[in-house]
Design a protein that fits this description.
Shape: elongated
CATH superfamily of the largest domain: Formyl transferase, N-terminal domain
Radius of gyration: 22 Å
Strand content: 25-35%
CATH topology of the largest domain: Rossmann fold
Number of domains: 2
CATH class of the largest domain: Alpha Beta
CATH architecture of the largest domain: 3-Layer(aba) Sandwich
Structural class: alpha/beta
Oligomer: single chain
Amino acid sequence: MSGGAFLGTTPFAATVLDRLAASDFRPSLVVTLPDRRRGRGRREEPSAVAERAGELGLEVLKSEDVNADIDRERIVTATEGVGWASICAFGQLIREPLLSEAPMLNVHPSLLPKWRGAAPIERSLMAGDRETGVSVMKLVAGLDSGPVALVETTPIGEEEDFGELSKRLAGIGGDLLTRALDLAVSDSIAWVEQNDSEATYAEKVEPSERQLDPTRSAARCHDLVRALTPHIGAWVGLVDGGRLGVTGSRLDPSNAPEPGSFVEDSGRLLLGCADFALELTTVKPEGRSEMDAASYLRGYGVPSSAT
């Protein structure tokens, strides 16, 4: 059976596509954003979904606007066999009449209605959530507010960062989407409406939110590092006006330096927080590559203090 059209762009969506392509719902059309200029060389590069679709031998449509007549018609035609399209981290707003002409199952990495929006994994980690999951819902005009078909819950590891959690949730999402499509084509989904009064929102992470604040608890600082590793990056300000990127951390309740002070302890770099120490296990000096704390201390010494 054809899996209709799949719309996606990000590495998360590429993993979902991988699972979908290996199922009975292999897409007949993959829709993604056009190539974008990325990196220092500003070369045009395809999206993660375009790359994976090419490797899988799937037809790819790189669309500037899926609501435009020509692209919309291609999506609707691809969906006719199965009756449903699927979408995950695509990057464009889907409007009528496409919403009605090609009903879509949307993969969202949160336990809806919690963490609707652009950065659900980051916000869940930043909040110190102990569990998260994936929801597959019907795409509607509202922000992640459609009725839910399936949900799977999973615990969040205490040391799990965005990269690790995102990869795991993407695998869950791909399997969950396959199950949802199977139910959808047989008209067997028991839709569950979301309770809007319980909704929380996962806004995009702003640059100002990336800075570690040592007046907060070590746990909250640790959660921020986990949430922004490896794709965005947290940092701590230094009194000389510079900043030190932090890409790995660990709680150390046995040490309690003054908040904002740095301490070396047997080759370890500790940052004092409101309650106890946060060990900075992996750091990135400005203009340099990532390194472990011991290498940093040998090359730079102990920073004076954090701001």
